[in-house]
Amino acid sequence: MELLRDLPSTFTTKAALGLGVHPRELYAWRDSGDVVELSRGVFRRGDAPLATYPDLLAVSTRATASIVCCVSAAAVHELTDELPPAVQIAVPVNSYPPRIDFPPTQVLRFAKATFELGLSRVEAAPGEWVRVYDPARTVVDLMRLRHRFGEPLAHGALTRALAAGVARPADLLRYAEALDVLGPMRLALDVAMAR
Questions:
Q1: Does residue 91 share a domain with residue 25?
Q2: Count of structural domains, the chain
Q3: CA atoms of 148 and 162, how far apart (whole Å)
Q4: AbiEi antitoxin N-terminal domain: from which residue to which, for each copy (predicted)?
């Protein structure tokens, strides 16, 4: 148990083995409830504070280069009431996509040149941060992927972002230009602001 106290609140099997924890001991902790397995190879100490976004924490711990995007990001920023059926993450186009079965995860490939455009972060658990696109980038991504996620979701997220003041029109248009969706974004913005 002394080794368990040396581990951070959320840790990987690799980190535990690096401290000298035997796999048998790690799984004994899991079976006794001293740690909770969030995903294959990702654990959280039982005495750690509750995580606000445990699924995002698990996925980002396994796929450290990924960024939470689309409907998952919209839910984090309260731009939608829709709950995504899977944690949606973006990875650069030429990178190896992670294969994560639990929690259910959907991997989208975004262009490397604009991959970190609008990068932000959210506190998934006290003191533990996850990379997520900011509200403006999230709205623009939903607009450019509206054929996949639906126009109502994109327009609803835009309306909420403007009403809450979390996305400025100038930022939306700048991101839309960089992501090659300026025409549809400008039209949607004109309609949303005319209401």
A1: no
A2: 2
A3: 23
A4: 2-45
Give the whole-angstrom CA distance, residue 189 versus residue 187: 5
Residue 114: phi, psi to the nearest 5? -115, 15
Torsion of CA 173, 139, 119, 53, to 10 degrees: 170
pTM for this predicted structure: 0.88
Task: State whether 153 and 177 are in the same domain.
Answer: yes
Q: Is the pLDDT of residue 1 over 60?
A: no
| Domain with 38 in it | 2-45
pLDDT digits (tens, 9 = 90+) for 73-112: 999 999 999 888 899 999 999 888 888 889 999 999 999 9
Question: Both 103 and 11 in a single domain?
Answer: no
- CA torsion, points 24, 26, 29, 30, in degrees to nearest 10? -100
